[in-house]
Amino acid sequence: MRQNKDTRLEVIKMIVSSQELSTQEELMTELQTAGFPTTQATLSRDLKQLRISKGHNEQGRYTYMLPSQQRYQRVSDTHVAVQNLNRMGVISVKFSGNLAVLRTPTGYASHVAYDLDCKEIPGVLGTIAGDDTILVILEEGANREDILNQLTVQPQ
Amino acid sequence: MRQNKDTRLEVIKMIVSSQELSTQEELMTELQTAGFPTTQATLSRDLKQLRISKGHNEQGRYTYMLPSQQRYQRVSDTHVAVQNLNRMGVISVKFSGNLAVLRTPTGYASHVAYDLDCKEIPGVLGTIAGDDTILVILEEGANREDILNQLTVQPQ
DNA sequence: CAAAGGTATGAATATTCTTTCAAATTACCG
DNA sequence: CGGTAATTTGAAAGAATATTCATACCTTTG
Questions:
Q1: pLDDT tens profile A95-147
Q2: Which fold has domain A84-151?
Q3: Within 13 A of A146's CA, how many CA atoms are on the CB side?
Q4: For strand C, is any atom closer than 7 Å to the CB of A51?
Q5: End-to-end distance of chain A based on CA atoms, in angstroms?
């Protein structure tokens, strides 16, 4: 049932990012009403695979959060069809030392950077976005070819 | 016993950021050897206050992690302790281009960087912390004097 | 000083989560 | 098509974590 599992994982991501759930049992109920009945044991495995972790929100409640939400505030605050943006968003890439400087259309830098963060590219320590520029900090010794491919190729 | 608790919290942050622990019991042992014996119940409360959450690392292991670049509200009691850290945490500051490189005692970089993030210093685009080094990305044209003051001087 | 109110803590308990194990389903390959 | 390996899953068991409850301790205020 590979197809079913994959769609269930997507549904989980949507539910988790749109609601504040604090137990796997709550999530189980939500999934059931969404038409994907499953057990808590499976959810434990799904959450692990999705790297969704239980964090603490402002009110001190325990809340499941996508890893992207954690990195979210780093760059910007609005999602748009980020994946498409990225594909067509990077105008140029230049390397300098352990940095890569990416140019994007004006105003798009933070979105693209957010997407890069989500991809968790190996060798990339982090990103900082300006308006039309993204600074990508590379690990020492990172292979520029590999990075370049990751930066310009479609995620997932 | 406010002082004891605060220092314990700092020690917890250091331990968590320097090692990969997967249970509160492991952390309990570490704390004991560090001279801060306590119980699992207290750790659960401490981790909640520090907003340390159990995530999934590359190998799929469950690992406690500090909220990396998260800029969340300064919860007053923990914030105070962090400010003190920062005051005495920065060993040196060097500028290069639109970057500032800060040196800290080994293991403290992430804590200090976290504090810097909280201060939201004008002219600072973001920070990346290593073990004993923080990379501060400055806005183009940022005044180094101003930045330097903010980086080393106690706020308020 | 005494009483009141708050914080911190440990022991025990309740809750929540992970993993084991066996079964079922699905993919793979001749 | 078989047959075998790999994946997925639920139930139950086993860990791990959060919370409850009672207590100690500290701080303030009269």
A1: 655 567 666 666 566 667 767 766 667 777 666 665 566 667 666 567 777 77
A2: Gyrase A; domain 2 (3.30.1360)
A3: 9
A4: no
A5: 20
| CATH architecture for residues B2-68 | Orthogonal Bundle (1.10)
**Residue type for A6, please?**
D
Residues in A closer than 8 angstroms to B77, CB to CB, are: none
**Helix/strand/coil (H/E/C) assignment for every residue in B23-81:** CHHHHHHHHHHCCCCCCHHHHHHHHHHHCCEEEECCCCCEEEECCCCCCCCCCHHHHHH
pTM for the model:
0.55
**A19 backbone dihedrals φ, ψ, rounded to 5°:** -130, 165
Q: Which nucleotide is nearest to B23 (CA to C1')?
A: D16
Closest nucleotide over all strands to A5 (CA to C1'): D8
Tell whether the torsion through CA atoms of A13, A16, A19 and A25 is positive or negative.
positive
Distance, in Å, from the CA atom of B124 to the CA atom of B130, rounded to the nearest integer, reads 17
* Domain limits, CATH 3.30.1360.40, in chain B: 84-151
Supply the pLDDT for residue B131.
60
Q: State the amino acid at position B48 in one-letter form.
A: K
Strand partners, A31: none
Query: What's the start-to-end Cα distance of chain B, in Å?
Result: 26
